[in-house]
Amino acid sequence: MSETVLFANAAVLDTAAGVLVAGQRVLVRGGEIAAVGSEVEAAGARVVDLGGRTLMPGLIDCHVHVNAHTADLAGLGDQSPAYVAVKAAIELREMLHRGFTTVRDPGGADFGIHDAVAEGLIDGPRVFFGGKALSQTGGHVDMRPRGRAVSDGHHCCPDLGLVCDGVDGVRKAAREQLRTGAHHVKIMLSGGVASPTDRIDSTQFSIEEIRAIVEEAEAANRYVAGHAYTARAINRGLEAGVRSIEHGNLLDRSSLDLFLEHDAFLVPTLVTYRRMSIEGADYGLSPANLAKNEIVLDAGLKALELAHGAGVNLCYGSDLLGGMRKHQLDEFAIRGAVIPAADVIRSATVTAAQLLGEEDRIGRVAPGFAADLLVVDGDPLADIGVLTDPEANLDLVMQGGKVKAGALG
């Protein structure tokens, strides 16, 4: 059970306003934030003097793949699910120790991973999962080489996706993911980098198929996340009701209008392309995959600038594979080079919480919110690089009122 703690002399990062408020006291009780202010008192609480250090909400990464301990996604489905689960548990703990108290996995993580974290069997961020991502035949998660006709869609195969075709087929596939408790349904709207047979500039699924999946998600009070690169693929998804676009590196101004019209979300994942260009081959990416990576590598930063300038809802995402996942925090520095630090932080807190439908529970230091808190040595608004070096600057990670890394002073 979490103890009652009063953080004193804290500089609280107001993520909604994008300001640092010095001289604050924050009371944590029963796993929640009970009070915030300069005069807060609580008899019997353990008082922790932060000495002016920053107290901010735990980070939210809206695009991780906890099963993807290798970039060789084609071989992942043939591995033991027990082995992959153990590797996922290790990665989840490392994510938590980087300061991520919540993540969304749009392909791979299932109800077992979610339940293991929720029940405290393993340490990790709370997981919002989509189950297996849906792809058409020959789409982004169809990992068969050209010469193979058969595929195994069994739910215990620890790969990231499921191949389905036709309106009836995609309805059933969406219902199967939702049946397991998935928080969203992920679909492939275009080709991707790590798949063997599709083109980056392809569009995937018919409009009728996309709408059918959206209908099934909405019927379950859930939403659809869509992998897409080109404006053509992005726009088809947004027009059909897809709520979040993952990546979006090749969007254009017509896409921006649709994002605003539908109040949709964009989840850029710039760090993964940078790391794949540097070390992707070391972690299993083929020469063909690396060639596709070059198509989207430099375009992503321009897309981010365009979307930010237009006022699109931006969420933090990393999408790293294999050993490259240790660079999860570098997305802060990449984005911080072109947009204000307050907006980058908002993408990993307030706006991310809105996408998850948890805006009244996580992403802010405010009464009634979960006590997901970080103590940071430095001011991330003045130097966003503070967040990229947890060994030097992250003094405490609290999740639900319980200390997960560091120690109360």
TrEMBL record:
- Fetch the SUPFAM superfamilies from UniProt: Composite domain of metallo-dependent hydrolases, Metallo-dependent hydrolases
Any Pfam family hit = Amidohydro_1
Transmembrane stretches, start-end = none
Q: Which residues form the Amidohydrolase-related domain?
A: 54-403
Record CDD domains: Met_dep_hydrolase_A
Descriptive protein name: Amidohydrolase family protein
Query: What broad taxonomic lineage does this protein's source fall under?
Result: Bacteria, Bacillati, Actinomycetota, Actinomycetes, Glycomycetales
